[in-house]
Amino acid sequence: MRRLVLLLAVLVLASGCARTTVGGTPVAQAPLDVTSPFDKDSSTDPSASEDPDVSTAPIDGEVQGVCAKLKWTDLPYPGAKADTPPTQINYDSTFDQSCRWTTKIDNVEVGVSLRFREGRQIKIERTTGDWDVKGHKVSYLDRSNEQDVEPSCVLVVPYNGGGLGIIVIDSSGKFGTVCDQGRKVAEVLIDRENS
Fold first, then answer.
1. Is the pTM of this model over 0.85?
2. Could you give the percent of the chain with pLDDT greater than 90?
3. At CA 82, angle to CA 85 and CA 141, rounded to 5?
4. Exposed, middle or buried, 26 (CB in 10 Å: 0-12/13-18/19+)?
5. Is residue 67 within a helix (H) or strand (E), and if so which, with residue range?
6. What ranges do the domains of the chain cover?
């Protein structure tokens, strides 16, 4: 009998709570770089997962190629040693190489991701402008003021006979503009292109 009374009490409480509504909008930080803004290589498997969740995707394989040319100490974010590997590698199967470096600064995720395609340049649909960086045309899209995405900058550059895509995401405002950060990453990688 006691169980029946307890069960009824729980049901009454649950049904009363179910009718209560709480105002407001849910707030959650989306994982960095969820979908690639770059063109897709039609020769890859279209059923492949585009980009797994940042917090659960493992590092897969060894750091090599373009991903081995960038170090944590090349980035403006504090705390990591040069030999610390990227947060993720080989996470985007639509490119020959992909890697990202992400960290939290004051509970805000910031980071840089690279994607490289052999033998073919990478394009973005629209651009904000172009820079000449050491003889390479770097096209960029500044997304720092767009409401539907984290403050970010998307850059593409012809690289090592193929194409390199760079994304910088940083809403902390502590390390300069996102496109300036992206330009510095492009400069580092262009300096190391043939090394």
1. no
2. 53
3. 75
4. exposed
5. helix 66-69
6. 31-191
